[in-house]
Here is the input.
Amino acid sequence: MALKRRIAAAAMGLGFLWLGVSLAAPRDEKFHTRLAPVPMDASMRATVAGTGSATAVLTGAKLAINGTFEGLRTPATAAHLHLSRVAGVRGPAVFELTVAHTTSGAVSGSFDLSADQVDSLRKGRFYIQIQSEKAPDGNLWGWLMH
Here is the structure.
């Protein structure tokens, strides 16, 4: 009988330990965006085109981004993660993403965020922007949202 109690107590202790570790472990937060042409005027219509999508996973303060794009009229030249003071308004580039220098391809990156940047991400203030040869100020963009 004493052995059964010890086994039950040990099992219960392991259960509480597992629960504590599970609760303490950082939980992944997922964000996504649809990449679409940046706002443009009539003069840009001949050079700005394409679509894409991206997902971002926040684990603790580590942000990992993976996405794809297609249909650019000229090859991509650069991609960045931008931070705005207000969602929907352009802001400065804060991280450089890896991008395929083609008209269709992948975009990715992994970054350590500050506490303020994590807060801004959760408030929808980060966006991805892909530049291309004929649209160096931006071809596609999309805001990271929950």
In short: Strands lie at 28-37, 51-59, 62-70, 76-83, 93-99, 105-112, 126-132, 135-143. The mean pLDDT is 89.
